[in-house]
Every structure is written in structure tokens, then in C-alpha cells.
Amino acid sequence: MLTATALASLHALFGIRLSTAAAVLAEHGQSESLVTAGLPDAVVFPATTVEVAALARLATAHRFALIGWGAGTSLEGHALAVEGGVTVDFRNMTAVLEVRPEDRLVRVQPGISREALNRELRTTGLMFPVDPGANASIGGMAATRASGTTAVRYGTMRDNVRALEVVLADGRVIRTGTGAPKSSAGYDLTALLVGSEGTLGLITELTLQLYGQPEAMMTAVAAFSAVGQAVDCVMATMQMGLVPARIEFLDADTVAACNAFSGLALPHAPQLLVEFHGHPEGVAEDARRFREIAEGFGARGLQLAERPEDRTRLWAARHAAYHAILASRPGARAVVTDVCVPISRLAEAIEETRADIAASDIPGPILGHVGDGNFHAILMVRPEDAIEVATARMLAARMANRALRLGGTITGEHGVGFGKLGHMAAEHGEAWQVMGALKQALDPLGLMNPGKLIPGQGRASLA
Amino acid sequence: MLTATALASLHALFGIRLSTAAAVLAEHGQSESLVTAGLPDAVVFPATTVEVAALARLATAHRFALIGWGAGTSLEGHALAVEGGVTVDFRNMTAVLEVRPEDRLVRVQPGISREALNRELRTTGLMFPVDPGANASIGGMAATRASGTTAVRYGTMRDNVRALEVVLADGRVIRTGTGAPKSSAGYDLTALLVGSEGTLGLITELTLQLYGQPEAMMTAVAAFSAVGQAVDCVMATMQMGLVPARIEFLDADTVAACNAFSGLALPHAPQLLVEFHGHPEGVAEDARRFREIAEGFGARGLQLAERPEDRTRLWAARHAAYHAILASRPGARAVVTDVCVPISRLAEAIEETRADIAASDIPGPILGHVGDGNFHAILMVRPEDAIEVATARMLAARMANRALRLGGTITGEHGVGFGKLGHMAAEHGEAWQVMGALKQALDPLGLMNPGKLIPGQGRASLA
Questions:
Q1: B339: nearest CA in chain A?
Q2: Contact B188 A192 (CB under 8 A)
Q3: Residue A145 lies in a domain
Q4: B314 and B337, same domain (yes or no)
Q5: Are residues A45 and A129 in the same domain?
Q6: A449: closest CA of chain B, how far (Å)
Q7: Mutation site, B99, B184, B338, B345, interface A, largest A CB count within 10 A
Q8: Is residue A229 part of a domain?
């Protein structure tokens, strides 16, 4: 789909930072999940906004697609080329452009990873808390509206991206947002672009909200006899006005996998893993109150971890849960599901999902960010077994439908890509057509990440 | 501009809930500020979403404008008809449709006022904290992306509107958002519509985030010898990780007006009025730490108010500040300005603004939500004195330009309406054209609140 003329223009712009090598194309045709698509026709590695804008003008002139690429950790095929085109890999745009400690802001390029950003911030006393697990790029996290374990306290990318620089399909460069903490000056373009998955433009710069590194942290882990009691404990905790920094649910199978993989000895039962941030007095009282609430719901053996090494061990195990679960079935790959429901329906959603998976032939431990009503089943399949793969896809589709029936959403944090396209009409109804109209207004040629998120433009051939 | 046929259709739809009476038109041609425009041709009082949708279809068929009206408390002319049309007054749509305590959500119609909503919530232990001062309608607050004293802790309408039902220009009814606390399922239409000032559609239902009524509250008031020290104290407070529920600045003139109006005896000096919410142990420690920080910046006579009657007296005085200031110059009306800057530039912004006002012939006390970098000057003019009015407008324009120069925004919470239209290009550059393209996509005939927010469509004659 890339003409010789287009390729020559790209070569003139990018020189050796343009590649059509098979290995490079293959690298950008892969995904961490089972979602697959074709290969891009070329990959470019821009170094500046000016180059990205010139690239968009070329794309418009020659009618080729542009697909943004951060760290390649998305789970629904967001960064895959469904109809060829040019993948825009931001690995050369990873600078921290400005740290503003007094405003608790940082301005970065999109390719920087969240771990690299936090390493750069360490000496400032500040942190960027959004933590999706994977060491994703900040630009990709914004494009996907990612969140993770800390959203219950610090919010998602929706809440923590304060300003953007974006290259539109026609090569115009716009800036959204300001350095002020809030604004009522017109449409919230920042919020529209966060979560737009590269379908409206390519993010070339982000201003992020930072937070002080907490003076004190306390982690608690508690076992419950049933999922419902753990979830009721979460609801009561939130209703009492406690604001944990993290409140994570692990079902018994997830706990078993973590015990085996990370050398823990937690009871084989549903667990809550909770963390409080603040000053020592506040955190101690938070933990005392949480213990009281949890024990009211039958929690057993609640342990508090205040020493950094103990906290780190628990959270490292939580972060390794995905790999721990995969290791529990050698040779398996995962269909990672992601739904989010009102917290009042969470126990029901998890129990029904568990029963559905238990009635199937594949294992699927469940874990989640339950303070947000968000959970995942890690459905493990032998990738060569078509029946297992189909079963996992059916279970995932049923989870999405269940989330909608319970008043929730088909994706809490992983996004749509093309993996969840088939559920968008059911979630949004006529509002999905409105998304299509907005896309049409900003990208009338359909060049920006085609085949993703919006109603079919008759171009993409979807998996 | 309303044809006889259109009027007959409106009459068939609304019966006695359609008015063209001069007094009713005049009531809807007024504004709390000095911003003025023409009158609508008619006012309707819908009772249901179905009626609003039918109204939009009529507007499309007969090409008349629709202007939403909540409580009429907006300050930049948002709800005024600049070219006639039909004002849609939501006073008959004030129901609390559903309270969901476990999810801390409430679903309401747009016409309910924030005070009425909180009265209805009182027995539930929950509250809706967004507090713009005026007893605005919830629909209007969402349309304006309002905030107020509590945004520093609880966020603005951007953060607290979770789902919407909206009638589009062509009569389609869409629902955005779900009951889940977060979602990555496509464009964030809720965020696009919050702050769109009725230019993209009419909000007919809102789902709001609620919070537990705090177990303990503590208010502190502290006097500083200079604006800069008060602002530095705010920055240090935020950087130390303290999260006040409110942190308000009052300059010495505002304090004097409040003393006279509300019978306080605060020192004639810049003051911070701070409140902490939480559990008793956390709040006590917050207050202790705040005292330490404030005294480090030279605060004198810091008083703590824990008893409800003492706290109420202070906050009632703060809420009456606007009227207290107006009372200090009998016969005056106010040009109320509203800018927001990065907190690192706040002292500079306030000092320059004070100097600018001091060099003019009109009084303009300054107060603001300084935890957000947001402040207001209440520029008092004799409305019949054209020179004073022009002076106030010049000072306001200079404030907006100053905010932009310091990296901030022309409006922190009052919105654009048509009062701030002239500054939009300076703030947004090319992004303002993008707003125009989005408007064009959803309202191609320009029927929804014409003359507001977006680049000129060649229809409105602006003040």
C-alpha cells in the first residue's frame, strides 16, 4: 500500500531511521497478547515533533496509514497494522523536557517508559504514580487511557495528563491544556485525545501531574473465606472514607501461583492487598481502621508490612502475578480480559465469571483493581489449540457482555484496539456513531491508526 | 427569527410551558454579571428527555437556536441569546432519579441545584462537594465545567460527572459513560461534553460521583504579611503532601469587606482559610502540620476552628465575600474576573493584578481558590459610568493576557460564554479551530447555543 514515491519521500525524511527490514517489521507486528494482525509496510523512528508533522503531511499526500508505537505492551492490538502503513516508533523521543517541582508537573516526550520517568524523578521527591504493571511508554499509556493498581487514589491517565502536544492527520500541531491545574476554556481536547488510541492524532509531548513521594506507606494483606466478603470489605472501606493508594484482589488460584512463583506463603484463599500512603500518623490510623473493617468481614491473619523490604516483596509478587499465572501452565499463552463494573455489582461479576471459567476446560485465575471495580481473568490457552483459543475468546466476550449487563464497561484500562471493537456498539449505542463523526472531523481520510476504536470505515479487515 | 410555523409547532409540543411573555423573555435575557445580549424569542420549560429531543428536531426542521438555562448564575453570558432563538429552561427537570450509596453515585436531572441535591443527600451520609459559590444548577455546572472552593481535594465537574444523557442538535439522544468508576472504551464523550456550554447538545441527565460526609473537619485561618508568603505557604502545603479540602486566599481588602459584612474581626492582612477533612486523627495531624508550615512563612495568630458553629461562621463569611465586596461600594455592580495559573506563578499573577488595579480608578479586591492557582478580582463599577466599565473590561483583559503569559488559562472555572471569546485564539491557537471542527461535526447547522465558545460562524453579533 506504500507506493515507491511515498517510500522515497519517507526515505528522504528519515534516512536510516526508516526501516523496511523483515525483522523490524516483524517486531512491530507482534503483540503481548494473542491479538494478531498483518505487518506494517515500514517503520520510522522520528526524533522531533517537526519530523512527525512532516510525516503526517506525507501520509496525507500519499494516503498511507500511521500507527503509533510506544513499548508494544498493549493488549488489544492497538499498535498493530491491520492494513499496512507506517508504524511510528517513538523510541527516539524519550526525553524529560522539564521538571517543575513547585507545580508538581513534568513535561516529557511520548517514548519514555514509566519506570524510566520515575527513575529520573527519584531525587526530586516526586513521582508519577500511574502503574499499569507493564513498563509501558507514557505516550502509549495516555493513548490507551491506562491506569492500574494506584488509580483508586491517584486516578488514571485521564486524571493525570494535564496538557498535550499532538500532531493531527494533516500535519497541524496543536497544544491542548496549560500549566494551570484546571481550566474552563472550551472543549477539553486533552480528555478527548487521552484514550483516543492514536486514531485522532499522534501524541508528541505530554505534561503530567506528579505527586510527592509519600512520607509513610503501609501495606496490609488479608485473607477472606469468600470473594463476596473481600469485595464487601472494599466497599465498606471506601464508604468509610478511607482512600487506599492501592486495593488489589487476588483469587485463590492467583495466590497459589504467586506463592509458587515468588516464594510467598499466603493462605490459599481470596486476598486483599492494600496500601496506604500519607504521614505516619494518618497511615497508622488508616491501617487500624482497615483492620477493623476487614475483620468485620471475617478476614483472617491480617498482616501489616511497614518495612520497605516487606512491602516490596508483596508488591513485587503482585506485579509478577501475570508471569506467575502463566508459569503455572507451561507453554500457555494468555487471553487477558479486562472489565470494570459498579462496585456494588463487583462480587456478582467476579463470582459469575469464576463459575463460567470453572465450567470451561481452561484455567483462568482472577485478579483486579477492586477499588475501581476493575478485574481481569488470565485465560490460559495452548496457542496451537484452536478450541482452547476459541473458548477463551468466548469467555472473554461473555465477560464483556456481563459487565454491560451489570452497568459497567467492556474495558476498564486496556482499551479497545481492534480486540474489543465488536463490543463497542453494545456499550455505546448511538454514542459510538458520535465517536465516528468526531473521527471523521479530525481525520477525514482515515489515516490515523485505521481499523481501531471507531465504527468501520470499510478499510480494515478485523480479526 | 422564530417563524409562525415554528412557534405553532412549539406550542403544540409545550402548550402552556411555552412562553413569549415579555417578562419571561426579560428574565432570561438577564445575567448576574455585566455581560448582556438580546432576548430569546421564546422560552420553553420541558419536563422530559423525550420533549427535549422533540424540541431539537423542531429546531433542526425550523432552524432556530436552542440555549440551555439552569439557574442563570453564569458570569460570561453562557445562557443568553445572542441572536434570538428558544431558551430551554430546565426548572421542571429537577428530580433525583436514583441514589446508589454503595457506588457513591447519584443520577439527577439537570435543573436541580447543588444545594437542593445536598439537602436530598443529607440522610444518606453522602455529599456532592463541588461548590462554585452560587446555588447553580447541576446541569449548568457541568456545562460550564464549574469548580469552586473544594476542587483542590474533590476535583471539578470534569472529575465528578461520571455519565451523561445528552440530546444532540438533530434530536438523537446519547448516553455517555457507565456506572463503572473508569473506562477505556473509546473517546471520552463525557469529558468532551462537560464544559461544552450547551454548544454540542443539551444535558438531560447526569450521574455524579458522591463522597462520604467527612467524619471530622477542621478549619484554620492565618494572616500573612504579604501575598507572596501566603502563596508560598500554599505551595509548601501541597508539596508536603497535605491535601486540604479547601485552601482559599483573601486579600486584605476582601478581609475588610468580610469583617464589615459578616461581623468577623480578622486582621486587615492577606489571609488563608483552610479546611481539612478526614478522620479525627488525620485531621488533627494535618492541622498541626499546616500550622508549622504557615508559621514558617510568618503566619500570625493562626486560629483553628473545629466546632461546627465556628467553622460555619468562617465559611459563611467566605461564601458571602462576593456580596460583602459589592456592599463595600453601594450601587456598584461587578465585573467578576477568573484566571488560573501554575501555582509557581500565582504570587506574581496576584501581585501584578493588584498593582494594575491599584493604578486604576476602580476598586477590585482579590480572592481565590489558591490550591488550584485560580483567583478572581471583583472589579466594582458604577454600571452607568462608561469609563469605569471600560476600565474594568481592560483590567479583565489584561488579567487574561497575564494568565496566558504565565502559562495559565483565561478561565479557571467560569467558562467562555461570549464574554471570553476574544481570548480563545490566544489561549488555544490552532486547537481552537479543532474545537470548531468538532462543533461542526455534531451541530452542522450551528443551532446549539450559537455565538459561544467556538470560532465565529458568522451568525453571532458579539458584545
A1: A183
A2: yes
A3: yes
A4: no
A5: no
A6: 13
A7: B184
A8: yes
pLDDT digits (tens, 9 = 90+) for A29-41: 998 778 788 899 9
In this structure, the answer to whether residues A190 and A115 fall within a common structural domain is: yes
Check: CB of residue B103 under 8 Å from CB of residue A344: yes
Please check whether residues A317 and A265 belong to one and the same domain: yes
CATH of the domain at A257: 3.30.70.3450
Q: Note whether A408 contacts B180, CB cutoff 8 Å.
A: yes
Q: Do the domain assignments include residue A264?
A: yes
Mean pLDDT on B208-218: 94
- Per-residue pLDDT tens over the stretch A32-83: 778 788 899 999 999 999 999 999 999 999 999 999 999 999 999 999 999 9
Rounded average pLDDT over B354-370: 96
Decide if B384 touches A, using CB distance below 8 A. no
Using a CB–CB cutoff of 8 Å, tell me whether A374 touches chain B: yes
pLDDT digits (tens, 9 = 90+) for B128-146: 999 998 999 999 999 999 9
Q: How many CB pairs under 8 A join A and B?
A: 291
Q: Is residue B410 part of a domain?
A: no
Give me chain B's average pLDDT, please.
94
Domain that holds residue B139: 96-212
CATH code of B144's domain: 3.30.465.10
pLDDT value at position B241?
83
Nearest to B325 by CA among B246, B255, B268, B266: B255
User: Who contacts A173 (Cβ-Cβ below 8 Å, separation ≥6)?
Assistant: A49, A53, A165, A166, A167, A204, B430
Contact A195 B179 (CB under 8 A): no
Condensed to tens digits (0 to 9), the pLDDT of residues A201-244 reads: 999 999 999 999 999 999 999 999 999 999 999 999 988 888 89
Domain boundary among B177, B212, B247: B212
| CA-to-CA dists, residue A26 to A19, A21, A195, A389, B222, angstroms | 11, 9, 26, 22, 63
pTM of the complete model: 0.96
For residue A183, which residues of chain B lie inside 8 Å, CB to CB? 145, 340, 409, 411-412
CB of A440 within 8 Å of a chain B CB? The answer is: yes
Q: Residue B81 in contact with residue B38, Cβ under 8 Å?
A: yes
The answer, for B208 touching chain A at a CB cutoff of 8 Å, is no
Q: For position A306, what pLDDT does the model report?
A: 86
Distance of CA B87 to the CA centre of its chain: 20
User: What residue has cell string 511510528?
Assistant: A88
Residue of A370, A364, A418 lying closest to A394 (CA atoms)? A364
Which contacts qualify for B119-126: CB closer than 8 Å, 24 or more apart? B120/B96, B121/B210, B124/B99, B125/A239, B125/B101, B125/B212, B125/B213, B126/B99, B126/B101, B126/B210, B126/B211, B126/B212, B126/B213
Task: Give the distance from residue A232's alpha carbon to the nearest chain B alpha carbon, in angstroms.
Answer: 10
Q: How far apart are the first and last CA of chain A?
A: 19
Amino acid, single-letter form, for residue B361: D
Q: Say what the ipTM of the complex is.
A: 0.96
State the pLDDT at residue B282.
87
Q: Does B426 touch chain A (CB under 8 A)?
A: no
Q: Are B299 and B390 members of one domain? A: no
Q: Which of residues 79-98 of B touch A (CB under 8 A)?
A: none
Q: What is the band of B463 on the pLDDT scale with cuts at 50, 70, 90? A: very low
Q: Say if residue B462's pLDDT is above 50.
A: no
Question: What's the domain count of chain B?
Answer: 3
Chain B residues touching A174 at Cβ < 8 A: 428-431, 434
Mean pLDDT across B59-76: 96
Q: Which residue has the cell 508528541?
A: A204
Whether B342 contacts chain A with CB within 8 A: yes
Q: Which of A308, A323, A338 is the last residue of a domain?
A: A323
Across the interface, of A151, A180, A344, the residue whose CB is closest to B373 is A180
Predicted local distance difference test score (pLDDT) of residue A462: 35
Tell me what percent of the residues of chain A surpass a pLDDT of 90: 91
| Cell, residue B150 | 473544594
- Residues of chain B contacting residue A402, judged by C-beta atoms under 8 Å apart: none
